[in-house]
Write a structure and sequence with these properties.
It is found in: Nucleus. Keywords: Coiled coil, Nucleus, Repressor, Transcription, Transcription regulation. It holds the Pfam family Sds3. The protein has four helices and two strands. It has two domains: about 90 residues, no CATH class; about 110 residues. By secondary structure, the chain is mainly alpha-helical. A two-stranded antiparallel ribbon has the order 1-2. It is rod-shaped, with a radius of gyration of 64 Å. α3 packs antiparallel against α4.
């Protein structure tokens, strides 16, 4: 089967077998131990290389290729495991830094949260101060209103008591004048007649409220003096 047709495939050669021209489209995978280069070039240019190769040479080339593929698979797994371990170590370091509070990301987020907390505290303090000021203004307004109401009530009570006292004084003065008139008439008639004539006192009609004094004139005057002094003290 030496003359059997071959399938078209990329040419795989080592670095020592051939040189790669600058115009060829190539993709190379190499390692320090096995400087293998996989060259993908146009099929028409290199098909002549397979025409001169026997099946034995092709089998050797295939085995060599499989060996290189297995080596590359091992290298890939090794690199993958290395990347995995490095990534796990990095994550463990970040977790340790996070637990100790020295992680850069953690510190950045912490500073951001602290800045937000500071702003919120300032806003809360300003709101609290404004609420306190509003409460104080309301308190002062209520206080002034209560004081004005108290003063008005005191003034009204004073005027009411004063009017009551003046009315009482006026009535007492009238009663005093009436009593003096009655007493003067009794003395006058008593001087002309030998025997005193007992006469009933004229009833004085007054409208309430009123105070009835059954006292002597000097005692009434004394009470009147005390009342006037009390009015002056108010």
């Amino acid at each position: 089967m030496e003359g059997a047709p071959l399938k078209k495939r990329p040419i795989i050669t080592t670095a020592s077998d051939t040189e790669i021209s600058e115009n060829e489209s190539e993709s190379c995978i190499s390692s320090p131990e096995h400087p293998l280069k996989v060259v993908v070039s146009s099929e028409d240019e290199h098909m002549s290389q397979y025409d001169d190769m026997t099946l034995t040479e092709l089998e050797l080339c295939r085995k060599k290729l499989l060996k290189e593929i297995r080596f590359l698979g091992k290298e890939f797994k090794s690199i993958k495991q290395q990347i995995y371990e490095e990534k796990m170590n990095q994550l463990e370091i970040e977790a340790s830094e996070l637990q100790t509070g020295v992680s850069a990301n953690y510190m950045a987020e912490l500073k951001k949260l602290e800045a937000e907390l500071f702003i919120r505290n300032e806003v809360a303090e300003m709101l609290h101060d404004e609420q306190i000021k509003a409460i104080n203004r309301h308190y002062e307004a209520e206080k002034q209103s209560a004081l004005q109401t108290l003063e008005n009530n005191k003034r009204l009570a004073y005027e009411e008591c004063r009017q009551d006292l003046l009315e009482t004084i006026r009535k007492l003065q009238e009663d005093n004048r009436d009593a003096e008139i009655v007493w003067g008439e009794e003395e006058k008639w008593g001087a002309k007649k030998k025997k005193p004539v007992v006469r009933a006192k004229k009833a004085v009609t007054v409208s309430g409220p009123y105070i009835v004094y059954m006292l002597k004139p000097e005692e009434i005057k004394e009470d009147w003096t005390i009342i006037k002094k009390s009015c002056q003290d108010l």
